[in-house]
Design a protein that fits this description.
The structure is a single chain. This protein is of the alpha/beta class. It has a single domain, classed as 3-Layer(aba) Sandwich (Rossmann fold). The protein contains 14 helices and 7 strands. Helix 12 links the parallel strand 6 and strand 7. Helix 1 crosses helix 2. The protein starts with a helix and ends with a helix. The N terminus is likely disordered.
């Protein structure tokens, strides 16, 4: 079930990446070498850009058929899917050796430190944040923002990498967008109290290091693709309300992406997402001015 749940926020992204890796069959380029405390060394594969086909699919303005996507997700994790089996094997190996996926940004973080670059804002999150950088790179480069999103990640994984991917970069602020994969159970079932506690822990770590915090509401979620029988539409706004209270209790800024992106039934308005989960460029265009206003408010408050 863990692998099925991971598909909730990164369904088509993961499928495209797995297919591309299998088709290419090439050894990935490796990054720099880091000394480990046990006397060994760490060397991470350098991240590869997603195939253009996958990008086109995510940012296509025309909505996809959610029933067809659910069927594809089910097929991907059936015993008959060789690509799905290869993906599960790679994910199991990664979880065993690097559960938080520290490798993903280790080299990028080292590059920033080497150039003495301190970002204005770090965007911590999952595939929604990772896709944001792909959708509009200039939004990040022009504003001194860096993205630290990883497809399929739950909030406990983000907490585990929060120090090296946020605090060590010495940003003025952090934008935290987490929860879609907690609903999906990407790293196992989690209670609302545990989820909020994980987000609260990131808030407290940031505040202890003089980093202003923006807590983001999850965008709408039309469907948990591998579990179309589970109605996510009431779950997301309920958790967002709890996040808003958490932000208020801790004196940090809250930004609401849910309301402007939702349809009347609390699903993701297909004008802004073609798969019911990930924003298209039109969706990110709605989010960007809200993010900028929230960042300015957080920095003014700090």
């Amino acid at each position: 079930m863990r692998y099925l749940a991971t598909m909730a926020a990164g369904a088509m992204m993961a499928m495209a990446g797995a297919a591309a890796a299998q088709d290419e069959g090439a050894t990935p380029a490796m990054g720099r070498t880091f000394d480990a405390v046990n006397g060994t060394t760490i060397q991470c594969p350098l991240p590869q850009p997603r195939p253009q086909e996958a990008l086109d699919r995510q940012f296509e303005a025309r909505p996809q058929d959610l029933d067809a996507l659910s069927a594809q997700a089910a097929a991907f994790f059936s015993g008959d899917s060789e690509i799905g089996a290869a993906f599960r094997a790679r994910q199991a190996e990664q979880f065993a050796n690097d559960w938080p996926f520290r490798c993903r940004y280790r080299d990028a973080n080292a590059d920033l430190a080497e150039r003495n670059v301190e970002p204005r804002v770090v965007f911590m999150g999952d595939s929604i944040t990772e896709g944001w950088v792909e959708a509009d790179p200039s939004f990040f480069t022009d504003n001194g923002f860096v993205g630290r999103g990883i497809s399929g990640q739950s909030s406990p994984q983000m907490l585990a990498r929060f120090w090296q991917d946020v605090v060590a970069l010495k940003p003025q602020a952090v934008h935290i967008l987490a929860g879609t994969n907690d609903i999906g159970g990407a790293t196992g079932p989690i209670t609302e109290e545990e989820y909020l506690g994980t987000v609260a822990s990131m808030i407290h770590i940031a505040q202890a290091n003089d980093i202003a915090v923006i807590i983001a509401a999850m965008p709408p979620m039309s469907r948990l693709l591998p579990r179309p029988d589970f109605d996510t539409r009431p779950v997301v706004p309920a958790l967002n309300a709890s996040l808003a209270r958490l932000a208020e209790e801790n004196g940090v800024t809250f930004v609401d992406y849910f309301t402007p992106l939702k349809a009347s039934d609390n699903s993701f308005d297909p004008a802004y997402a073609n798969d019911g989960v990930h924003p298209t460029r039109a969706g990110y265009a709605v989010m960007e001015p809200l993010a900028e206003a929230a960042i300015e408010a957080a920095l003014a408050q700090d």
